[in-house]
Amino acid sequence: MNINKYWRNVSRSCTVNEKPYHFIAWGGSRNSEQEALENAEKKLVHIIDHFTGKEQSSWDYEYAHSEIREPIIVEDEKHPDAPEWVITRNRYGALVLNVASVVFIDVDCLPGGCLSLGSMKGKEKVLAQIVHTIERDQLACKVYETYAGYRLVLTDRLLTPDAQDSVAVMQKFKSDKLYATLCLKHECYRARLSPKPYRIGVDVPKLTIENYQDPEMVAWVKGYEATSAKYGVCKVVMDAPENQVLPEVKRILEIHDRFCLNVNLPIA
User: Which residues span the domain enclosing 180?
Assistant: First the structure.
């Protein structure tokens, strides 16, 4: 799982073919700010050398942007060196659960969300397909309804996002392709734990690792959390058999449900 505690950035200007360019690279570390700075400097050299043609390797420029650069709110204290789970706050202020090997799958009804159909028929059809796949392939899953579709959790196995079985099961359920791609890049699965601000009438911020402790952003978070407490993120529509829920999965689901499950609140 590629989520760091410490972040530093470095920048450098240079001229290529008589044109000025300015490069910025972020480096992360779970150990120290000094190591984060060293990683940033190494990354900056790679970026510039790749851009100027000095480095002819398979190093992918896009990798420089594939890390989750979000402030950590709380994380697995039992495994500090390699946490099983980490809760971060994303760029629009929502809390996100990041997990290393408990498989979360997002299934959207339509690009515009199920409610764009003007009825619940779209969701009912997608849920029927999900249940059919679970029964056909004898899968153990807990299924939640979300605002735009469904969230599935495999309960009887642990898989890293790059595992062939993980990729295959996402394809079975026709998971959101962007979500599946990000799982591979970030080396973890992600599940949003609090509402999207615009769905609850709150202005969307531009939260970053640099500004999340600024007074204005701290005030925004306080207001957002007061409003988001009136909403849930998902509702259980199908439980897995108790004897098909691994202890590791049960621990993650307890954290997940404590944050985002409330049957008496509207979903956002």
Answer: 72-260
Q: How far is CA 150 from the centre of its chain?
A: 15
Is the Cα torsion angle 207, 255, 102, 196 positive or negative in sign? negative
Question: Which of 46, 65, 84 is the last residue in one of the domains?
Answer: 65
Look at residues 182, 179, 169 and name the one whose alpha carbon lies nearest to residue 130.
Answer: 169
Residue 91 and residue 52 in one domain:
no
Is residue 29 domain-shared with residue 104, that is, in the same domain? no
Asked if residue 76 and residue 60 are part of one domain, the reply reads no
Separation CA 248–CA 144 (nearest Å): 19
Q: How many domains does the chain have?
A: 2
In a 3-state reduction of DSSP, which class is residue 199? helix
Q: Is residue 56 part of a domain?
A: yes
Per-residue pLDDT 10s for the chain (268 aa) are: 879 999 999 999 988 888 999 999 999 999 999 999 999 999 999 888 888 877 555 444 344 446 899 999 999 988 888 899 999 999 999 999 999 999 999 998 865 444 444 445 678 889 999 999 999 999 999 999 999 999 999 999 999 999 999 999 999 998 888 888 889 888 999 999 999 999 999 999 999 999 999 999 999 999 999 999 999 999 999 999 999 999 999 999 999 999 998 888 999 9
> Residue 231: helix, strand or coil by DSSP?
coil
One-letter identity of residue 207: L
18: Cα separation from own chain's centroid:
41
58 and 149 in a common domain: no
